[in-house]
């Protein structure tokens, strides 16, 4: 059996690593296509190096661009690969333009399509990711859901065939790589950090980065927390900071430690040792929950409502002046329920595809 795996962005590399390992263990041929959506070392190659993902069979090198332009170029290139290689399955992950391009190519060529992380919904149609995930789900023959909530979303949209609750492959990855991170990462020493003595922040969503008022107010709220915040800066965010002339302002950097994007192992260390996490990333929200670290999500909604319902995640938007109170005075739960499976989602996915 030949499986086409289509990847393009940082979160997909993490989600795919356990599945790629399980495919190889089962003796299946994986043909790996990297669209090039994320292309610099810190956002792409470092994940292949650290997580043992096979070298891509082809890198389409599409790069950045307007959404339609980028997706269209990916679609055409992936279609050519499918015609030439004739896979038995196409496997896509998450909700990026790479996801949608792979889904459309498979659907139009009538190749069976499997979607890992199916059924997520933010119900915010201003997010490109929401359109990508909805369209991909409705193209898919096999839908692998990380949570029961995701299964329920699909059922409300009339999708019940080929739906499987398997757990979250990002949880698989954390289970597999945390020990390695603890043994090999030196990021805490390099940054002179003590466990639970800092906050960790990530911002990359257009909702925040493309709104100068939002971005400026978030940074001001970070400073007002009066606590050390380690801030790996996404390339898109850094570009906006430079455009707005915020990156070098002392008023915005007194307690912010701005660093370059870090690899997966270093990020695991920073997450598990943070006292609290501030983010607009879906993946970081989950990883915070995996490690039992409280999270404040800088968005009006989240795909991972289970973490909010469990009390480990709080949504915050616009009312940034409330951040200080949440950071210093909020009482967080002590117990965590196993929302995201048992750490064996990848093996379940490969077994189901193999049976089909």
What is the 3D form?
Answer: globular
The CATH topology of the largest domain corresponds to: Rossmann fold
Output the number of helix runs: 16
Q: What does the radius of gyration come to?
A: 20 Å
Instruction: Tell me what portion of residues adopts beta-strand conformation.
Output: 5-15%
Main beta-sheet strand count, sense and barrel state: 7 strands, parallel
Q: Any low-confidence stretches, pLDDT <50, length ≥5?
A: none
Question: Descriptors for this entry?
Answer:
single chain, 356 residues, alpha/beta, Rossmann fold, seven-stranded parallel β-sheet, six-stranded parallel β-sheet, 16 helices, 13 strands, 15% strand, globular
Question: How are the SSEs ordered, and which strands pair?
Answer:
Blueprint: E1 2-7, H1 10-25, E2 29-34, H2 45-51, E3 58-59, H3 67-85, E4 89-93, H4 97-108, E5 113-116, H5 128-139, E6 142-145, H6 148-156, E7 163-165, H7 169-184, H8 187-190, E8 199-202, H9 206-209, H10 212-224, E9 229-232, H11 235-243, E10 256-259, H12 264-273, E11 276-279, H13 282-291, E12 295-297, H14 305-309, E13 313-315, H15 323-329, H16 345-355
Parallel strand pairs: 1-2, 1-4, 2-3, 4-5, 5-6, 6-7, 8-9, 8-11, 9-10, 11-12, 12-13
Helix pairs in contact: 1-7, 1-16, 3-4, 4-5, 7-12
Description:
The protein is an alpha/beta fold and 356 residues long. It folds into two domains: 2-168 and 341-355, Rossmann fold (3-Layer(aba) Sandwich); 177-329, Glycogen Phosphorylase B (Rossmann fold, 3-Layer(aba) Sandwich), CATH 3.40.50. It contains 16 helices and 13 strands. It has a seven-stranded parallel sheet, with helices on both faces. It has a six-stranded parallel sheet with strand order 10-9-8-11-12-13. Helix 2 (45-51) links the parallel strand 2 (29-34) and strand 3. Helix 1 packs across helix 16 (345-355), helix 3 (67-85) crosses helix 4 and helix 4 (97-108) packs parallel to helix 5 (128-139). The longest helix is centred in the N-terminal third of the chain and has 19 residues, at 67-85. The chain is globular. The mean pLDDT is 91.
């Amino acid at each position: 059996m030949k499986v086409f795996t289509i990847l393009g962005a940082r979160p997909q590399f993490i989600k795919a690593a356990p599945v790629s390992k399980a495919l190889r263990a089962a003796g299946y041929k994986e043909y790996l296509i990297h669209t090039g959506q994320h292309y610099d070392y810190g956002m792409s190659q470092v994940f292949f190096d650290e997580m043992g993902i096979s070298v891509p069979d082809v890198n389409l090198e599409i790069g950045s661009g307007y959404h339609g332009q980028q997706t269209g170029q990916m679609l055409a290139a992936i279609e050519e690969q499918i015609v030439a290689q004739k896979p038995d399955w196409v496997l896509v992950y998450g909700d990026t333009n790479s996801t949608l391009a792979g889904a459309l190519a498979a659907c139009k060529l009538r190749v069976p399509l499997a979607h890992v992380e199916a059924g997520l919904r933010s119900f915010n149609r201003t997010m490109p990711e929401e359109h990508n995930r909805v369209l991909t789900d409705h193209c898919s023959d096999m839908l692998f859901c990380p949570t029961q909530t995701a299964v329920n979303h699909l059922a409300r949209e009339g999708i019940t065939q080929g739906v499987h609750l398997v757990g979250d492959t990002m949880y698989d990855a954390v289970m597999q790589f945390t020990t390695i991170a603890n043994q090999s990462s030196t990021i805490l020493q390099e940054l002179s950090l003590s466990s639970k003595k800092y906050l960790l922040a990530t911002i990359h969503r257009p909702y925040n980065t493309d709104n100068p008022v939002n971005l400026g107010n978030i940074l001001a709220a970070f400073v007002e927390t009066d606590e050390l915040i380690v801030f790996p800066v996404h390339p898109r965010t850094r570009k906006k900071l430079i455009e707005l002339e915020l990156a070098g302002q002392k008023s915005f950097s007194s307690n912010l430690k701005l660093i370059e994007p870090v690899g997966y192992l270093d990020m695991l260390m920073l997450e598990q040792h943070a006292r609290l996490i501030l983010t607009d990333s879906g993946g970081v929200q989950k990883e915070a929950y995996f490690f039992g670290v409280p999270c404040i999500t800088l968005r009006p909604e989240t795909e991972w409502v289970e973490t909010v319902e469990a009390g480990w995640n709080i949504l915050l938007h616009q009312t940034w002046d409330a951040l200080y109170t949440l950071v210093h005075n909020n009482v967080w739960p002590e117990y965590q329920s196993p929302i995201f499976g048992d750490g064996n989602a990848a093996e379940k996915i490969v077994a189901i595809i193999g049976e089909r």
